[in-house]
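Entry 14. Structure prediction run on the chain below.
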Amino acid sequence: MPEWTDNGIIIDCRPHGEDAAIVQVLTKDHGRYAGLVRGGQSRAMRPVAQPGNQVAIRFRARLDEHLGAMAIELIDANAARIMDDRMRLMALTSICALVQGAVAEREPVSTVFDATEAMIGLLSSDVETPLWLAAYIRWEIGLLAVAGFGLELQRCAVSGVTEGLRYVSPRSGAAVTLDAAGEHTPRLLILPGFLGGESKSLEEDVINGIRMTGHFIARQIFGVHHQPMAEARQRLQDMVVMQFDQDIPAETRIDDLSAGEG
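Output returned:
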C-alpha cells in the first residue's frame, strides 16, 4: 500500500463530485502527484487548495496505479499574497501550467521543486516586476533543460567565442554573435542582456527574453505532444509585451515580432 508524507506546492485543483477535489501537487521528494482531497470544495479547504500554496501532504493509495487519497495542510498561503497583482497572478498560473506540461507524473524532480518554490517566493515578495520577470525567464530556461531541451547560451555555436553574443537560433537554442548571424539575423531570436546578450533596458530585455523562452516552450514542451501553448503562458507573454513595450523609446526599439519564424 503506497503511503508517504511530503511537502509540496499545489499546481491544480478541480472539483470532484459534491464536495471533494482532485488536487495536483509538485512535491519535494515524490514529483508531480494527483490525489483525491475529501472536502476539498468546503469553505475551510478552498483557501488552502489554491494553486501556488505550499502544503504538507499525506498520501495513501491501495495500489501504485490508483489515484489515492490526499490530505493537505497549509504551510504558506502564497496565493493570497499574489491575488491582487494581475501580472504576478498570471505568472503563477503560468508556472503551474508549465509544471503540468513539462514534469512527468510521479518522477522525483527536487531541482524543479526547489526552483519553483524560490520563484513563487519571489512572486509573493515586493521585488519590482522587471526583476522577478528576469528570474521567471531563468526559471523557464531551467524547466526546458529538465524537459530535455537545454539552451546553449554561453558561447557562439558557429565560432565558439563567448563575447559579443547577440542572438539565439530558433531551431537549436544556441547563441550566435552578430557576425556569425549574417543574413540569418531577421530569423533569429534576440538574446537578452541579463543572459549574456547586448545590454538594453531591463524592460526590453524582459520582452526579448520571454519571447525567446516562449518560442522554445511552445515547440519543445507542448509542440512535441501536438498540444497548443498553455493559455496562461501566452497571456503572460502578451501582458509583458503590452506593459513594457510602451516604456521602450521608439528610436531604440527592435521589432522582433517575426523573430524565430521560418
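Residues 127-245 form one domain.
Filed with the rest of this week's runs.
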